[in-house]
Amino acid sequence: MSNTPSERPITDLTELLALAYQIEADAVQRYIDLAEQMEVHNNQDLLKVFRDLARAEGIHAEEIRKMAGDTDLAAVAKRLGRWQKGGSPEEVDLGAAHYLMTPWHALQLALIGEKRALEFFTSVVDTTKDPKIKEMAGEFVEEEAEHVNLVYRLLRKYPKPSDNWSEDDDSPAAQG
Ligand code: ZN
């Protein structure tokens, strides 16, 4: 069975909301995890950044949940399972997170997640016919773009460690 999430355009409203919810819920969990790691490093700066981002993504998740009304989005997302078979960016990233966790690595993981969220909501704006969803996704696109920029700014402050990590500056996640 192939696992190619982007081949089929998302047209079903519940499915769309479920995927959006999953992205945001995963992001919250990722930032909580990253914040904990930064606490271990006693990095108050990034600890605060990650906690703020967890809060921001949590607000998104809640907005999405409200739009879905009584539908259990987490259950729908689970049933869809399209990102459950090794395809979930967040899960894959977090699997590698714990032993790589310098501030630079933490920010790389944050960046990957933010870019994927941005891509997802951009695709929603481009494809959805529902004006409410389009408006929500449009707002999320703006916020996720801000998050991407924030992470890039922080990466200037926390450059790559000089240890012999991956040589590839552009795609640290492409390794392994
Ligand atoms: Zn974000």
Structure write-up:
The structure is a single chain. The chain is mostly helical and 176 residues long. It has one domain (8-155): Ferritin, core subunit, four-helix bundle (Ferritin). Helices cover 69% and strands 0% of the residues. The longest helix is centred in the N-terminal third of the chain and has 28 residues, at 13-40. Residues 1-6, 84-88 and 167-176 have low confidence and may be disordered. Zinc ion (ZN) is lined by residues 27, 57, 114, 117, 144, 147.
Number of helices: 6
Bound molecules: zinc ion
Number of domains: 1
CATH fold call: Ferritin
The assigned CATH architecture is: Up-down Bundle
Radius of gyration: 16 Å
Question: Which CATH C-level class is it?
Answer: Mainly Alpha
Major beta-sheet overview? none
* Structure class: mainly alpha
Total DSSP E strands: 0
Shape: elongated
Poorly predicted ranges: 1-6, 84-88, 167-176
Q: Can you write the helix and strand succession as a string?
A: HHHHHH
Q: What is the share of helical residues?
A: 55-70%
Which range does the strand content fall in? under 5%
Mean pLDDT: 81
- Full CATH superfamily name: Ferritin, core subunit, four-helix bundle
| Beginning-to-end CA distance, first to last residue | 22 Å
Helix/strand layout:
Layout: H1 13-40, H2 44-67, H3 73-80, H4 89-97, H5 103-127, H6 131-157
Helix pairs in contact: 1-2, 1-3, 1-4, 1-5, 4-5, 5-6
Keywords:
176 residues; Ferritin; mainly alpha; 0% strand; disordered N terminus; binds zinc ion
What is this entry, summarized?
The chain is mainly alpha-helical and 176 residues long. Helices cover 69% and strands 0% of the residues.
